[in-house]
Amino acid sequence: MRIPKPPVPNALKRRPPRPGSRPAGNGRAAAAAAADKELRRQEALEQAAEVPISVVGWLDERTGASPFLRAMLYRKTPRGTNWYYTLGSATLFAFLSQAVTGVFLAMYYDPSPSNAYNSVRHIINEVWLGELVRGMHRWGATVMVVLIFLHMGRTFFFGAYKYPRELNWVVGVVLLILTMAMAFTGYLLPFDQRSFWATVVGVNINASGPLLGPYLADFLRAGPEFTATTLSRFYAIHMLLIPGLIAALIGAHLYLVVKLGTTAPPWLKAEKRRELAREEI
Asked: How far apart, in Å, are the Cα atoms of 218 and each of 184, 193, 203, 273?
């Protein structure tokens, strides 16, 4: 005598299809409908994947940026290029970091003699991630100054200032001066005792320069003496004037680098001269 199988629980039973969800027939129509649905899904995914390509093509057709990008990204580099050639890109990255963090700091900073110091304290102590952003901006200024000096030193010792790159060297020197000026004008903005008297000493040093020195000092002070307008003058120079000039000159600097290329290390040139000398002998 066989023991009957236990009944299947209701939770494990297959639910009947809803009316209209499965066409009548022997299952072939249902399989065809499922295949057609999968095909439409694949076509929708392919169309969605082509959207970024279409957007890039639309922008390139109207801006003509692809020739510039090809020249920028696929330009030839000399043999012997090493990590010293990345100092310029590192300086550019430091400038972008300063620009981004400076925008966030400007949202909470108050450039008035009575509230400047308190606004900096508010950023450090109360604003979410304010201490991190302010620290990045403060120490990032030192990093940018160090990097631009290293980049200028590499350019000088590698002889990259010679023909035909003299103009690019002049642009780099102006960028170095503007970077130092941006660091100098930003030092006053916390407006504590140290920054105030250090700025007084720095402006007096500028005033001792020949011919243009007194006029430059009056321009920085916004008058013959330090007043409430001096802080606003430094803030405007630090936030608007110098970053705009630096951004424009960086664009010209990169254009000349792409147009003229980079120079090879000097030791490779010396080896080439020795090889030519041996062939002549």
From this structure: 16, 21, 9, 54
